[in-house]
């Protein structure tokens, strides 16, 4: 029951309207209406009636559509009674009656008094509301302007209303009504209002569909933006404001009601809009309105094209949709989505209508439908973009609309088609891959690639389309991946870039064009903008993917990319306002894309496509080679079946050449043709249908034999598939020929007399095994052929599509383009027929079958590399040519912007070649190399260079060189403009080797110098040279400058002021990242190198900038700074060694400045940065040949020390290396200057040297060692040695680094032993590293040619060891002996000349020092000092005894008597001093060494015995000169061998004497074992000497070589006698002393053996027969002398035998008696032997014999 309050509120709206209706109603015609109105008024005014109807009414219990938001509601019957007069009044067609009724209905809806759904398929309430809406819609037929506006207001209010929901046919009726008002109204305001209402309604429907709610708030549209593109020019601001107020007022009224109702909570959240199924009365066929002609076209389009695509997606339909492929049934359970679908479909249908030319109103309807579609697509939400239902609707309806409208000659239609395509590409591309792949070339590229005779307006529309397309950076990359990298798709991106290039370049010369010059200029400019936009888009994309800062993208349209994540797909943006411009970011690719981009896979696909296209191109020229190429590239298999499949399916093949290849009779071609024909399935096909299908893929060749082979195989295949068709294959073969002839006859316009059906029948008589085919069959065949020509797939190509390189042909789009694009003068193509649509559908099906269905969303930046490969060359040409040829400021700005973006992309992607191409081109356009030609555009190019350096510095890498070269040239010209003299006036040119050549004057210009000195002189030089590097300008043959050239130059130099200060490039270098700063420094060094090496105009601009940027970047982290300095270091070294002294001095002074600055920074311990920083000084000091440079370096380093000594840490190393190099310098002043500084460092700053790093001390020592070798002043060497001693004292004191301080005592106990062990230096790396350079340096001085230096050095060395050796551990001593002391003797131990002649020392031994002098002075002194040192520290170093002994032995072994003598003397001295402390083991080492020395010094005369000189001497007269030379050489060798043997013999005598001395000193300390080892050594000497003495041949040869008869004597007689005598003495003393280990029997055996040996030797000589006849001197004299010399030894042997005990003598008598008897009978040279024999016989042998006889 309705309340009184509600009645009054409702009555206030209804009663006044009904009163007006009654007032204006005709009593005769509208009496019933007036009665209904009065009845309703009475009921509403009656306060007693709580309800207008009786309670018993059956309708009273059903809620009605009227309500007021309160507790009470009107029933359905009540609502119907109240609304009935309003509906009837609206249907009267009387304006005065209709107007108040419609106004009342609008107010009821606006105030929310009407609620529910208006849908003719719904229940009673829905039907009532549907009737209400239908009545209102019909009111516009009254053709009244005011009523039209009221109807629009009411309908918009109804659609906008929250309480009243319009669905289904009611919604479509509203749309049609507004559409009709827009077309039929004569009032411009009403038309604009109708259009705005349509837009607002569409936005509401789709916004509610996206939100899935009828209560979602909607913003009013912006009417001003709807006036484009047609209405805006015709409308005035008042109309726009009026319409805007109309829309806004309605929306605000609805919002007010909605907000009020929300506060009361009367509206539900879904209000019944989400039913999952349609009401049972719904008829899907009616819903789709499939009887419409255009709808039939669309349904045929969808069924044939997309059915196969949808089959694979069954069960995947989202959003609560139930979709069936059956054509007769389509259901959408969600009403809001159904409404959106119906509206979208209706708009598509309206846009597809093709009105006749004379009906502009219908054309306006077509345009507004397209505009509405454009707005809907631009504002499409996620559901619209992702739902399969809506994507299907786009494919089913919108694509057909685009197809029909793309060929329109009306520019607004074409423009709207492009806008719709833009929305599809930008927002729907993931779901419409195949469709975009067709429409983009068809609509955009077709127009773009028509350069010569385009439609200007169409071309401009397409160019603006492409410009908008580039705003979203993701689009171009996605297009490239999905089309340019798809083998079955057109290269859209590549064709787009090339088309833009051709447009930007203009119409080729000599080509006829329809364009006017202003039109061509506008097109070129627009194309240039598009190319710039393409590059900008690519740059934006890579910036977002890599998260790079984008300094210029802020100037573009604002794009919301807050949710963009690196490497992920772009996400959906917010919805834009209607008509806002229609461009937003890409949709959520995560929802739409079915694949992501993989760089490797994309690269493979791209490479595959390029190679396949190359193979197709080769095939279209030479088929056989093309097939071979494709097989070799693995694009086609090598079997005939695979080749046939390729020929059948591949796009882009020349069909004529395919036919020629199939007709070849070669084996492979024949097999391929058979496989090709066998691939067809003709079963059940009519004969002409089979031929059509067969001949669609190729054109029959021209040769009859080829045709014969092909048709023969075709006939066989047809009969095999249809065995009952003909009696034999011959019949099919002949009939096939006949059909081909008939086709040519019927459809060739050149054939005038056409074949009739009877003629055709007559021609085919008897072909079926001499029987006739049925006449009806042949007649039907004739009719079909005559009516429908047999064509290839691509017949009817236009001229543009017949080009073999055209991408449309490669993709099979040729026919599509010919169908859609009308030929000139052919009206038959103005409207698309059903046949053509079907033909188009077949093409789409083929493309859908071939194309890859997966859509790839780009995410890997590597993909951009492939895009750059495609577009960089066209871009470079597009920007370079206009920039070079045009002076237009706009063109220049565009070209420079394009260069900037191109360089950005190529730099970020590290595409070095492409980047350098752009950078070098841009640098060339600065014209800085030719300043006389500079124009304003060149100034702009210079500014672009500066901007490039500032914004792209982090990615330029090697391209920095070109940038900095331009900067260098600019600064050069800038200085010339200011009148400053060039740097060349201050620098000398290359000098001579002496380095003293005067400064050379730079080249001057005589023609200018006389007239205008100063500024003009230098400027003229720039004009002549053309560049600062001295290269001439092409075309200038002389060095004269014209006045005009000078005037141009001066004015151009003034232009440079526009650029401003370029120093910001260098000051901002500190903003570069770690890698970029290194590239920057490398490039700057290279440019500076070129400047400085210029032969005519050396400059230091870049060198000064190097100092600046090093200063700016000195605070970078150490690792980065080290890398920077590594580059700068090499640069300063190169420049510091320059032949131009002034430049080298400037470089070194710059390096000094940097070093002083760097040394201000404090360095922590154990770092090496200062050392690395100062290395250039070291290298230049070593390499430079200029005295001035080396002296400058010394002074620079001295200044650093004096001013920054507190901060110097690791830099000491480089400083000492510099001083060390200076110590070896050939100029005295440098040596003195450097030593003076070293002296100051050591005296004043010694603590600084080692406070942080111990290695610095070693460097200092090495430096002092170098000064000790100074050849200029002996005092320097002596002072250096003194400083070395000072350093040693500091080192021993522990003043060199904390780590080198002596270890504390290991224990407080231990008495004397503990005291000696305390404070030892250990053998640690630090000690060795510090001590050894010092000691080794002193050791090396032992070879100095100056005796005083040698003496002092040895003294300091051994004093140091003696004074500080008590701190050395044994291990340290061991290293000292091995590496320092023993090295003094290395040379003499290995390389001394045995002849004693002077020789050069390989270790620095100077030839100025005589070898004997060194041996007698230095070596002997050194050996003494070594022995003294060993003796002094014997307790510590005694384990080194063996090594010391081996030193002596090694000297003894040398074939030099003096050297061996020194070694023996040192050995004896060592034994004398410390022998008493030796243990048995040590004595064993001593004895072993002596034995080794004795064995090693055995004389060797074997060389003498092997040479036979007798024959040579006797044949001397017969020899020639060469023989004489050989003989003399051999004699020298013999004499040298004899001298060596004699020297060794003398050494062995020394050894014997030394052994005797040692034995005498320590006889009691030696054991028997030691004595026997000495005996063995002496006996070996004796035996070898006797062997030599007893060799008659040797003695004979020695006599021949000798000059006196004395050579008859035994050569080693003394050595033999002394060694035997020593042996006998040892044995006698052993027997008498009987030391430890004495074995009597063993000793006696040795003694008897020795005596017998001595007697036998004597007897052999004494009793020998006459000597050889070769003796020149009588033997008697020599024999007697030898016997006399041997007599004492024999006497000693006889006495020894006589002194034996009786038992021992008797025991050995049997052996001795024959010798004694023989000895008695021998000749003796002396009576001593006889006396000794007599005594022995009397005392020993006589008694024994007598007793034995008794």
Question: Explain this structure to me?
Answer:
The chain has 1750 residues and is mainly α. Helix content is 65%, strand content 1%. The chain has 76 helices and 6 strands. Strand 1 (63-67) and strand 2 (73-75) form a beta hairpin. Helix 7 packs antiparallel against helix 8 (188-211), helix 8 runs parallel beside helix 9 and helix 65 packs parallel to helix 69 (1521-1561). The protein starts with a helix and ends with a helix.
Brief description of this entry?
With 1750 residues, this protein is mainly α. The protein is built from 76 helices and six strands.
Radius of gyration: 59 Å
Biggest sheet strand line-up: 1-2
**Share in helix:** 55-70%
Q: Give the biggest sheet.
A: 2 strands, antiparallel
Overall mean pLDDT stands at 74
Strand residues, percent: under 5%
Q: Which residues sit in consecutive blocks of at least 5 with pLDDT less than 50?
A: 1-6, 49-59, 229-233, 263-330, 552-595, 794-833, 988-1016, 1022-1041, 1298-1319, 1392-1409, 1509-1519, 1603-1608, ...
C-alpha end-to-end distance = 185 Å
Can you tell me the overall shape? elongated
Total number of strands: 6
What structural class do you assign from the helix and strand content? mainly alpha
Number of helices: 76
Key words describing this protein structure:
1750 residues; elongated; 76 helices; disordered N terminus; 6 strands; two-stranded antiparallel ribbon; single chain; 1% strand; mainly alpha
